[in-house]
Amino acid sequence: MASGDDDLPLDEEQEHFRIINEKSVDDITLAFFYKPHTITLLTVSVIGLLYAAFTRNDSGPEDNLWHGFCCVVFFFLVISLLAFPNGPFTRPHPALWRIVFGLSVLYFHILVFFLFQNRQDVRKMIEWLYPDLKGVGLSEKEYAVNCSQIDVARIWSHLDLFAVAHFLGWTLKALLIRHYGILWTISVLWEFSEIVFCHLLPNFAECWWDSLILDVLICNGLGIWIGMEICKKLEMRNYHWESIKAINSTSGKIRRAVLQFTPASWTHVRWLDPNSSYMRIVAICIIIIFWQVVELNTFFLKHILEIQESHPLNLWRLFLISLISAPTIRQWYVYVTDVQCRRVGVQCWMFCAITLTEAILCCKLGLELFKQTSVIYLLLWLTIQIIGSGLCVYLCALYAKTWRWKTLHEGVYLTQAELDSEAKNGSYPNSPKRTIGNVNGQNLVSKTNDKDVKYNLRKREIQLTTGH
């Protein structure tokens, strides 16, 4: 997506792809936890298989099917642990991300299998897995009722558990995407998605104050702001990890073990910069539209299959999609911004396959539902998404091109106006500088004082780090 040299050496291109597809662990201190142990895993798995196969009562057909299904899933995850890539992350352990990828592949296969069934049979399969769903229909809360009645009690009734989940979801999205413009574009366009499809999904119909104030400003806006503030804090930290062997105190060792579940580093992302090409804008529009499809799949699947929002099946799917989306966004970001990365990562590929297959499944199983709409609504939604995402991202790119500073690969540069401002505020007035060009009518100068926080941030921007 980013423009670069087409004659990049093959080994260098493969190395950049390996970093996002199967990143290795640096500075291993406890070698035992990072050795393969393949023979041990095989032995334990086979012994467990023998025990499960010969000690249980196999007189019940349904019980046999359930245990056989669980055993197949178990060995598939064992194989994924051995053979699949871990992606761009290594914390808390690469094995976790291999299992996540294995779960995404397994979920994709289940979706493909469901594509060749009818709605009634899919519902029976789900009821077989979750007997508590038998005879239970879908009851959804209506929000667009008495919209003229606005009081504290009415507003408080809308701030339920789902509102908290809404807020936490947007905090997570901010931690993954880390760009105000993209996040607000997704937030606003989602409200348009609800308006377009509210005739199919009744709970999409909301009062204006619920949609604009509670959703966009409070849940979405507050979640975005808190997520971005967390990102800023993590960006400013210095990451120097000490070996657990070098820590003497027990409390220190426990603290270091807990910190293993935190990122090894934190990358300051730049989806758009002054040199952004139109293809990068298109790539960002794609992720915005894809995110809308992912959200729509969530609501259409539960409505078509008549599954309550609070049911564990819905929660497990949301949890899995959240796990998959973390390496997916990282791999897509590197593919979009790194000129030396020519392929998307396999987790990103799998996430796209899952999203599209879910959308196809919604159309097939919900054919009767979609007969109630018109193709005009679909075209209207697609038009709003394309124009809205394109316009917002273009404005973000235009803003990036009119920034008062510019980053070049040979150094970190500030405009003369910005340098004068820093000198006026007493920020390193004696820093060496030299004029190297002109941007937007202002002289562009080089500043090389490593103590400047702004300098260090911008220096990291031009170095593609491989952290979180």
TrEMBL record:
Pfam family, one: PSS
Membrane topology value: Multi-pass membrane protein
GO molecular function: L-serine-phosphatidylethanolamine phosphatidyltransferase activity
One of the record's GO cellular component terms: endoplasmic reticulum membrane
Alphabetical UniProt keywords: Endoplasmic reticulum, Lipid biosynthesis, Lipid metabolism, Membrane, Phospholipid biosynthesis, Phospholipid metabolism, Transferase, Transmembrane, Transmembrane helix
Catalytic reaction(s) noted: a 1,2-diacyl-sn-glycero-3-phosphoethanolamine + L-serine = a 1,2-diacyl-sn-glycero-3-phospho-L-serine + ethanolamine
Pathway terms, separated by semicolons: Lipid metabolism; Phospholipid metabolism; phosphatidylserine biosynthesis
BP-aspect Gene Ontology terms: phosphatidylserine biosynthetic process
Main location (coarse class): endoplasmic reticulum
EC code: 2.7.8.29
Transmembrane segment boundaries: 32-53, 65-84, 96-116, 182-202, 208-228, 277-294, 314-336, 348-367, 379-400
Compartment(s): Endoplasmic reticulum membrane
Function: Catalyzes a base-exchange reaction in which the polar head group of phosphatidylethanolamine (PE) is replaced by L-serine.
Family per record: Belongs to the phosphatidyl serine synthase family.
PANTHER family documented for this protein: PHOSPHATIDYLINOSITOL SYNTHASE, PHOSPHATIDYLSERINE SYNTHASE 1
This protein's name: Phosphatidylserine synthase
Organism: Mytilus coruscus
